[in-house]
Automatic annotation (TrEMBL):
Start and end residues of each Small ribosomal subunit protein uS4 N-terminal domain: 3-93
Function: With S5 and S12 plays an important role in translational accuracy.
Gene Ontology molecular function: any one: rRNA binding
PANTHER family from the UniProt entry: 30S 40S RIBOSOMAL PROTEIN, SMALL RIBOSOMAL SUBUNIT PROTEIN US4M
Protein name: Small ribosomal subunit protein uS4
CDD domains: S4
GO cellular component: small ribosomal subunit
Boundaries of every RNA-binding S4 domain copy: 94-155
Organism: Brevundimonas halotolerans
Keywords, in A-Z order: Ribonucleoprotein, Ribosomal protein, RNA-binding, rRNA-binding
GO terms (BP aspect): ribosomal small subunit biogenesis; translation
Region Disordered: start-end pairs: 20-46
Gene3D superfamilies: Ribosomal Protein S4 Delta 41, Chain A, domain 1, RNA-binding S4 domain
Quaternary structure, from the entry: Part of the 30S ribosomal subunit. Contacts protein S5. The interaction surface between S4 and S5 is involved in control of translational fidelity.
């Protein structure tokens, strides 16, 4: 197992949840945390502990983006008018690597970031290789013609593990999607319960 894959599954075990709903997740077999003390009886978690876990879970879900990037995304959500927790989810979902993952171009969010950085994706016909690039309503995200036959792409498209959400409009035989609208928390197909309200509490306390 590669370092990236082991790190990914370490997050699953640390959280005690199958974050991406994948059949390979180790928590499908054992739900306790990693390490020799993973099976100890759980003590009552403080409010701060709950807020921290909610932040780590949401940050980990999007490919464990850096603390600096995540905090910056929160700050942008807090500056905007409206519900900060909903705005935070909307901003995270509008990341190009998240859109590539949601579109089922690749099987994992980790693969999505690599797929983007290797130049396999265009936005409105222009190559974009930055995973954190912000997709806007109406933008068309597409797999380059020469990248469409990659085994990674074909595996993801044929997988029945997850569905494409309705805020993405599928086109060109599944090789492109249009960002129709910014989703709210209820629209996003998280396999586990996400609590962005606790993330907001974490940063504002």
């Amino acid at each position: 197992m590669s370092k990236r894959h082991s790190a990914k599954y370490k997050i699953d075990r640390a959280m005690g949840e199958n974050l991406w709903g994948r059949s390979k997740s180790p928590v499908n077999k054992r739900s306790y945390g990693p390490g020799q003390h993973g099976q100890r009886r759980k003590s009552k978690v403080s409010d701060f502990g709950l807020q921290l876990k909610a932040k780590q879970k949401l940050k980990g879900y999007y490919g464990n983006i850096t603390e600096k990037q995540f905090a910056k995304t929160y700050e942008e959500a807090a500056r905007r008018k409206g519900n900060t927790s909903e705005l935070l989810i909307g901003l995270l979902e509008s990341r190009l690597d998240a859109v590539v993952y949601r579109a089922k171009f690749v099987p994992t969010v980790w693969a999505a970031r690599q797929f983007v950085s290797h130049g396999h994706v265009t936005v409105n016909g222009k190559k974009v290789d930055i995973g954190s690039y912000r997709v806007k309503v109406g933008d068309v995200v597409e797999i380059k013609e020469k990248s469409r036959s990659m085994a990674l792409v074909l595996e993801a498209m044929q997988s029945g593990e997850r569905d494409i959400p309705d805020y993405l409009e599928v086109g060109d035989r599944g090789f492109s999607v249009r960002w129709v609208r910014v989703p709210e928390l209820a629209d996003v197909p998280f396999p586990v319960k996400m609590e962005p309200n606790l993330v907001v509490e974490y940063y504002s306390s």
